[in-house]
Amino acid sequence: MTKVLITGTGLFTPEDSVSNEELVLAFNTYVENFNTEHAAEIEAGSVEALAPSSVEFIEKASGIKSRFVMNKSGIIDPDIMCPRLPERSNEEPSILAEMSVKATREAMQQAGIESTDIDAVLVACSNLQRPYPAIAVEVQELLGIEGFGFDMNVACSSATFGIQTGYDMIRSGSARRVLVVNPEICTGHLNFRDRDSHFIFGDVCTAVILESDAVASAEGSFEIVDTRLITKFSNNIRNNFGFLNRTAPETVGAKDKLFVQEGRKVFREVVPMVAELIEKHLNDNSLAADDLRRMWLHQANRGMNDLIAKKVLGRDPSETEQPTVLDEYANTSSAGSIIAFHKHKEDFDAGELGVICSFGAGYSAGSVIVRRSA
Fold it and tell me: What is the mean pLDDT of residues 269-297?
């Protein structure tokens, strides 16, 4: 039976970062301006006054302290409050493809391969900047990769779903090496004027190289023991933007064309779903929670991760067992668990086990059990 290895990971981090203090200042300035402009309506009861945000509120609700962004100036301008990323000509590399190439180069270096060694490219992320041509095919062209590529979207679970797709390709023999890339400009679909969610997302790109054991040569790789995916429909995390509603007059300024969620419902429903997924996945592979050295969980909310890990382990997790990058990167959708894996994997000894797990809108969740190779 063909073994599939993760032989390299890469990370592209934007140069700009926005702290909670900067974000709160912009938001509260907007709130003050709004309440002043609509003072009469607020007094009459026809308009509801907006409430300010605070650094303490953000950190308590999420564990986030800052986030990297592709454009800072637009986000912290109270009159704009969204990233300003100029549209590029068709002759220029797209933003997502450019991010993907940068992350991929690090992953290839770690794996000890050239772009011509790769057979397939999967761009798996929560938001694609265009429907076609596929970003994956553009990445393929920019890197000089033969074979094929395609895009896929499973929201925050896109990376683990992409890993299983590549894993299945290699096991079936349709590819020997697969590149899975996760370019996430999450600030582009975030409503920075919504107090309950204005702090959630950041931007980043991760890349993973999957190889058959027959061709892999890099030391310190991770064998994929098994993968497991699950989806369950829910409206509690949603984004209704799409080409069918692009020109409808009633969509102008509509909040549901950006990221919206029922946060408390998501917490209540997703935590047990994910914990059960990991527990069953381990059990089906004759493994126990104590066999795991680490869980690299989706970086959406510190409280969710702590509770999921506690349910799986039967006790509070240590920072080593469940590392977080959420405080520095915020929620980066599908890339979050891969950032955690990328930054916290080199201390593993041969034979030690871990789980990469992501979860989010859909609902969707993916679990990937890995073992450090000799």
Answer: 97
Q: Are 214 and 170 in contact (CB under 8 A)?
A: no
Cβ-proximal residues to 219 (8 Å cutoff; 6+ apart), any chain: none
- Structural domains in the chain plus CATH codes: 222-372 (3.40.47.10)
Cα separation of 240 and 236, whole Å? Answer: 12
pLDDT in tens, 3-53: 999 999 999 999 999 999 999 999 999 999 999 999 999 999 999 999 999
Asked if residues 75 and 26 have their Cβ atoms less than 8 Å apart, the reply is yes
Nearest CA-CA partner of 12 in 201, 282, 163, 204: 204
Give kind and range of the element (H or E) at residue 46. none
| Tokens of residue 72, six digits | 């800072």
Burial 220-253 (b: 16+ CB within 10 A, else e): ebbbbbebbbbeeebebbebeeeeeeeeeeeeee
**Is residue 156 flagged as an active site residue?**
yes
Catalytic residue (one of 156, 186, 205, 357): 156
- Residue 136, Cβ neighbours under 10 Å: how many? 26
CA–CA separation, 185 vs 48, rounded Å? 31
Question: Predicted confidence band at 249 (pLDDT cuts at 50, 70, 90)?
Answer: low
CA 79 to chain centre: 28
On the 0-12 / 13-18 / 19+ scale of CB atoms within 10 A, 42 is: middle
Give which of 273, 260, 294 is closest to 369, Cα–Cα: 294
Query: CA distances (Å), 37 to each of 32, 193, 277, in order?
Result: 9, 16, 49
CA distance 190 to 335: 16
Q: What is the pLDDT of residue 248?
A: 58
The model carries a pTM of 0.95
